Amino acid sequence: MIYIVMGVTGSGKTTVGQRLAERLRLPFYDADDYHPRPSIDKMRQGIPLNDADRAPWLAQLASLIPVWEANGGAVLACSALKEEYRKTLQTVPDISWIYLDGSRDTILQRLQARHAHFMPPAMLESQLQSLEKPAYGIHVDVSLSPEQIVQEVISKLDHMNPQSEFGVIGLGVMGKSLALNLASRGVRVAMYNRHVPGKEEGIATQVIAENPSLTNIKGFDKLEEFVQSLEKPRKVLLMIYAGAIDAQLDVLIPLLESGDVVIDGGNSYYKDTARRTALLSGKGLHFVGAGISGGEEGARKGPSIMPGGPREGYEQIAKYLELIAARDSKGKPCTTYIGPDGAGHFVKMVHNGIEYAEMQALAEVYSLLRFMLGIAPAEIAGIFKDWQKNSLGSYLLEITIDILQKKEGDELLLDKILDQAEQKGTGGWSAAVALEYGVPYDTLSAAVMARALSAMKTERVKAAALYQKQSPSVTINEKSFVTSLKQAYQATRIINHEIGFSLMREVSVQLNWELNFSEIARIWTNGCIIRSQLMEELAEIYKHEQRLLMAPPIVDKIRNARQGFASVVALGLQYGIPLPVLSSALNYFIGYSTADSAANLLQAQRDYFGAHTYQRKDKTTGEYFHTQWK
Known about the structure:
Layout: E1 2-6, H1 13-24, E2 28-30, H2 37-44, H3 51-70, E3 74-77, H4 83-89, E4 95-101, H5 104-113, H6 123-130, E5 138-141, H7 146-160, E6 166-169, H8 173-184, E7 189-192, H9 203-210, E8 217-220, H10 223-228, E9 235-238, H11 245-252, E10 261-264, H12 270-281, E11 286-293, H13 295-301, E12 304-308, H14 311-324, H15 343-372, H16 377-389, H17 395-403, E13 407-408, E14 411-412, H18 426-437, H19 442-454, H20 457-466, H21 478-511, H22 517-523, H23 533-541, H24 552-574, H25 580-592, H26 599-610
């Protein structure tokens, strides 16, 4: 849609246009910027422009409007005083005219207060004489504040376009937040939530009641009415748990038409997504599996979004995803087309695996500082604040600092939380896929197993009584240890990301997805749970490197950390502190950087008992041998 904010000089076209464009997440253009120099000089001298002066200016704007529409729309501030001017500009069907109307005195006061503009107040009279007020479009009184004007425009646009642009099914924490995010950007949103007597009743109506300022949202608890309220081709986002997707599709598909798009924004298994993509394709529908990360706050203010599936379906919803996504350091939306089939959900699954290990690594660092060194939580928070400022900044470190300072009364709330970690399954999925594709997955698998072990609380308590810890007689230099621990944590995080990206690389090659790792890292720099300073580096490194541990800046960091890393793990284990992720990261690195390993013995053993054969260093690659070992 093209929105043209019109009116005489001083009516506030530029201010309102800019704010409306920001609200709609569209580019803003000011027609004054396209006046040729002779016209600007005339107006500076108080000489009104005539139709001949305006003709080339209007022609240029008219030629640009279809380009802007093709790129997703725009807001243009343009006086467009006469009907013939507006006809010249109507080069596309979908133009919304917004006329800023006001009294001569009100506008004159504004002009007299305006500085450094080429249009002097004296020009107002000539413009008022030329003005032909449109009998159509949206008319708004300029005596309102710019915020009020924009809100009134949005409200009237909603009434002019009764059908909703985008539908959301499922109004849990994430679904509701994404619906409100869309609505707050000016999108007309329809919401549907199932009706369960005594449990889920009037959920959509409740969301609307809680957000009275958003007049562009509609709520339904009947699926048929919800679907009918959407403009075609329909765009429907499912925000329900993975196990309910197929049942929801069974009742939704008969209500849809060819060309409609269904988006699964939940944490679905990527192979299920590929199956559903094929199913809907056979019915003329597009199914887009979109991983969404950022939690409740991210969903409301700007998440990281990983869409995959048919490109045609993606292109129909791309502008909405870009509208609500977080922004990277250069202002680009943290979303991109990931790849076909279930690629989007696959990448989200790996994201969650990395997240598991990042969280576990922080828990282990905390354990070493508190239970081995005896540092108080408030002081640990101080150490983490220093790390946050000095190269290790991340969202997870940031929230950990807050957690370590949160008290309930005079006591630390953390100490009251049961040490039994739960999980939703995505971490386990990625570990299983790593096994399927033969990709080492040390840190991420260790994190999943650490959560499983934490669930054995009763047994752990009994075992702790049987195996009392005995601290070794080793003196630790606290300052030196904390320095080494920082290096160990930094190295673990690098290795953890290398492992996650390695799985993506292998699956991408085997399934011919052509994943762009630099782009994946870029959209993970903001909005998502694993956003960090490291991710900013990875976005650049993966433009030139395929293997993170081979990148020169990373090699230097790991080399500098290696000795301290090993000493931290060794001391921690001696003191009885479980370090599944830190130790597995170290083991992975040592194995990865060992040129001649003991795997030759494994091959000999396999050949001994199973005649599985082996290759020789001194023979041609690909040639296999068998030996009678006894």
